[in-house]
Amino acid sequence: MPTDFTPLTSAGGGALIGLAAVFLMALHGRILGATGIVGGLLRLDDPAGWRLRAALLVGMVLAPAGFLAMTGAWPQIDIPVGREAIVIGGILVGIGATLGSGCTSGHGVCGLARFSRRSAVATVTFMAFAFATVFVIRHGMGG
Fold this sequence. Notes:
By secondary structure, this protein is mostly helical. The protein is 73% helix and 0% strand. The chain contains 6 helices and no strands. The protein has helices at 7-28, 34-40, 47-71, 83-99, 104-113, 117-140. α2 (34-40) packs across α3 (47-71) and α5 (104-113) crosses α6 (117-140).
């Protein structure tokens, strides 16, 4: 299974995520963790926090429209697996984020930037499982 390596696009996306994390911390004193943002939408006891979380989520959903406006084309998304794999993967990621008390954006971007040992352990664990999963799917299952 060939992989399209896009270092400039990937670096640009990573820089934008980092910039968003810096602005959120500087302007609101909050850590940019996607699972915490989405999970926080279920809590209605903090109206100001809810509005901030909703605005961040709306921005994430509308970002492809910004890409369209800048390039004239929708971003091309190629998912080489079926819906079942996406659903199972989403459930596993949700379980992992719950067990790890956060996700890759919270731990990997923000936690590592704050030199958090807990985030370093979580990020190494996320990455180890990601490497193992890709290895098993590509070499063990012939994907």
